[in-house]
């Protein structure tokens, strides 16, 4: 956990947008951290580079795609900002993307982004890194690519289905790769330092010149999950660990559903979630003190916004949920406008608070005097995540295509030539719904800031 402020920065940067297929809301908050190191991107219509019409899309209009990404930086914000501005562009430049092979394009694009940063003289001495959890949505599929411990979770009739797996150094497959590459895991950290085992950037852990990029101590190579959209699927949530460290995947899905049933806008639900996770003080051991970013993407499936809201509300009212999971704890007046939070009690995470409200998957309210730790166990949820995400994706890293076989050169060695590095300098993006939205604080983290998340 990095340094904290005497008071949290609770100003939020939020945006929303929609087309005929998806509706999204996104918000980010600096919180107790001394700087903001998260970034995100929301693009309703991701096209191949240079595409001006549907005929230029992969397999034409049948593969119209939306892109959503959350990037959690550590050791600084530069790599996270770069990823937020460029990862989707680099993915769209891959040959596999143009051929309609989105799964391979995501894998190639993550590695190509790493190469682009490494080969850019502006980042020659850069030591920061970032997670990346992205969702690409077509008319009938969701493609999720994940590197690090940000997370993507699908809400299915009140049940949380993980579409990504948290990459932690102590996980068996991750630890095997780390040790095979000459590293070690100490106190749950890579070489006693980094608290996650995959990331974009972090080039100090990618110096083995005789190993391909996906076999380095830390790799940007993502797991990719492909989900066939069904009528039961309601929304996708992508968030950084500032959210997931405070709430289980199931609790987040229940929170979102209840907000939808109360007719709250998606970006307002995002803001309320962050307020709910924010620690009341910075003495909680880091829980509730991190930067926070959360994106909610509604799967409209041919419905209007109002029709989608009504359908979810009816499911909640009818108790139409497949799972009654761990509770979520907050105080609010169940109105479309806002949560009536008890800031002295309701936002404290991990404390034994009496008289809280537990919201089940069907909207049922129960009073509880139980401590948060009794409601759900993050270790148990991690096991559940492992069991639901394809084992081969975790423990067996597929060979990259020819486009990525050049590898990630170590610093000090001549990097391989890459056409994936964008020519333009980093610029702040518009918050227009159809453009990339990158969130960052005006202040930057000091040079000696902690890198280990």
Automatic annotation (TrEMBL):
By its UniProt entry, which InterPro entries does this protein fall under?
PP2C (IPR015655), PP2C_BS (IPR000222), PPM-type-like_dom_sf (IPR036457), PPM-type_phosphatase-like_dom (IPR001932)
EC code: 3.1.3.16
Q: Which GO terms describe its molecular function?
A: metal ion binding; protein serine/threonine phosphatase activity
| UniProt KW keywords | Hydrolase, Manganese, Metal-binding, Protein phosphatase
Q: Where is the composition biased (Basic and acidic residues)?
A: 423-432
Entries under Gene3D superfamilies matching the protein: PPM-type phosphatase domain
Domain annotation PPM-type phosphatase: ranges: 23-299
Q: Catalyses which reaction? A: O-phospho-L-threonyl-[protein] + H2O = L-threonyl-[protein] + phosphate
Compositional bias (Low complexity):
398-422
Required cofactor(s): Mn(2+); Mg(2+)
Top enzyme category: hydrolase
Q: Tell me yes or no: is Glycoprotein among this UniProt entry's keywords.
A: no
Q: Where is this region: Disordered?
A: 366-453
Bias (Acidic residues): 371-384
CDD domains attached to this UniProt entry? PP2Cc
Family in the record: Belongs to the PP2C family.
Its protein name is Protein phosphatase 2C homolog 2
> What species is given as this protein's source?
Diplodia corticola
């Amino acid at each position: 956990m990095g340094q904290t402020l005497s008071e949290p920065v609770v100003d939020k940067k939020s945006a929303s947008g929609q087309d005929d297929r998806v509706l999204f809301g996104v918000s980010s908050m600096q919180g107790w951290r001394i700087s903001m190191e998260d970034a995100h991107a929301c693009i309703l219509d991701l096209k191949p580079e240079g595409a001006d019409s549907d005929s230029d899309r992969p397999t034409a209009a049948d593969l119209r795609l939306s892109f959503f990404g959350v990037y959690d930086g550590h050791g600084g914000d530069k790599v996270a900002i770069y990823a937020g501005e460029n990862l989707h562009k680099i993915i769209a430049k891959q040959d596999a993307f143009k051929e309609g092979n989105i799964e391979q394009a995501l894998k190639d694009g993550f590695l190509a982004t790493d190469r682009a940063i490494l080969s850019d003289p502006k980042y020659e001495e850069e030591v920061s890194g970032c997670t990346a959890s992205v969702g690409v949505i077509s008319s009938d599929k969701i493609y999720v690519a994940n590197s690090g411990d940000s997370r993507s979770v699908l809400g299915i009739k009140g049940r949380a289905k993980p579409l990504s797996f948290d990459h932690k150094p102590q996980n068996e497959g991750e630890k095997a790769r780390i040790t095979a590459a000459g590293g070690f895991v100490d106190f749950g950290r890579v070489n006693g330092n980094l608290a996650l085992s995959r990331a974009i950037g972090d080039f100090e852990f990618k110096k083995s010149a005789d190993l391909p990029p996906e076999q380095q101590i830390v790799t940007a190579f993502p797991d990719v999950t492909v989900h066939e959209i069904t009528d039961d699927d309601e929304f996708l949530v992508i968030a950084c660990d500032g959210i997931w460290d405070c709430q289980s995947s199931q609790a987040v899905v229940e929170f979102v559903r209840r907000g939808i049933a109360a007719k709250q806008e998606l970006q307002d639900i995002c803001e309320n979630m962050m307020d709910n996770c924010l620690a009341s003080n910075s003495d909680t051991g880091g829980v509730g003190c991190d930067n926070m970013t959360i994106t909610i993407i509604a799967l409209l499936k041919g419905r209007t916004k109002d029709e989608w809201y009504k359908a979810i509300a009816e499911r909640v009212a009818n108790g139409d949920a497949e799972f009654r999971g761990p509770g979520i704890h907050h105080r609010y007046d169940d109105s479309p406008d806002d949560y009536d939070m008890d800031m002295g009690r309701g936002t404290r995470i991990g404390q034994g608070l009496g008289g809280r409200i537990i919201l089940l998957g069907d909207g049922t309210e129960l009073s509880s005097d139980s401590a948060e730790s009794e409601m759900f166990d993050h270790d148990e949820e991690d096991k559940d995540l492992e069991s639901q995400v394809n084992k081969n994706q975790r423990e067996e890293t597929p060979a990259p295509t020819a486009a990525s076989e050049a590898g990630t050169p170590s610093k000090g060695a001549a990097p391989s030539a890459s056409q994936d590095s964008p020519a333009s300098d980093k610029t702040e993006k518009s918050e227009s719904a159809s453009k990339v939205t990158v969130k960052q604080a005006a202040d930057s983290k000091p040079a000696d800031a902690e890198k280990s998340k």
